Prior knowledge:
Blueprint: H1 9-21, H2 26-37, H3 45-48, H4 87-92
Amino acid sequence: MTLKINISPETESHLKNEALRNGLDLEAYASKLIADRYPIESLSAEEVKPVRGVLAIQRERPQLFEQMIMTSVEQLPRWSPQIVVSRRILAEGDDA
């Protein structure tokens, strides 16, 4: 795996000096630092298992409305059911 990072020249110089002091080249020293910080053995069995099924990713949802609307139930129109008789309902009979 290739990992590209942008660091300051001072940090690069410091890392090169530390790598030389440990007898490693810069890439090997950086790999060692990452491996020491994030050892694979520290992961639990659940973290190592592959993810299967549906993974829901959190995303920012756009705001649809900004204006606050004040209303009460009494102001809403009354709902009245609409009964539709179709051939299917007539064919089924009174099984319900």
